[in-house]
Amino acid sequence: MGTVRAFRSADKCPDGQAGADCFRSTSATVRSTERTGGRSPEYKVRLDGPATVPGEVDLGADGPLFERLKPGDEVTVTLWRDYAPALGRGGVTQQTRDSPESDPEWQAGLGAICLTLACYLLYVGVTLLARARKTAEEGLPYGFRFFGMCTVWAAVAVVPAGLVGALASSGHGHENRGWLVLTAVWVALLPGVHFGVRWRGARRRRAVRAERLYGPRSA
Length: 219
Hints:
Radius of gyration: 25 Å
Order of helices and strands: HEEEEEEHHHHH
Largest sheet: 6 strands, antiparallel
Structural class: alpha+beta
Number of strands: 6
Distance between the termini: 58 Å
Helix content: 40-55%
Number of helices: 6
Strand content: 15-25%
């Protein structure tokens, strides 16, 4: 969060002075451009330039600059610390995805996913140790599937919580909000996840019971 705060408060470096906490510019040459992916495409620009210039950046969208670039073009790379947050050419500037803006939210989201997975694995390990003979004789308990599905959907719930957290952290002075909002929204979604998995399981069991009693439903 301190890095995000410093990034948002940084100014352009004075002429001839390139400090670590100011935006500096350097020139680079476009080696190639590539659009990859389907629903979530990446717009990669590969660069040749000084050692401080990254070999590849992702512009995140095809406009306003990416669609105009071609191999051999000279571009201006905006640098801050180890980040390259913008590319420019001919008065047109486009932001890249190389910035610390969403780092706190990414780390909080990853922590939530790891916590969920760790809790499930702890449950599985304790159950197998405490009920090893019964599990061997009767098979895996129902909770393995139920809590496994809860774990999967709890991890999926991090995505909308992360989007809300990213919106909450936008704007100077709001750097501390994002991960807190993400965590609060994620925790608020967990009861809904539990209810949804339980409802779906009950519905599936009712369908299996009805098919056993009355036969398969006619088309």
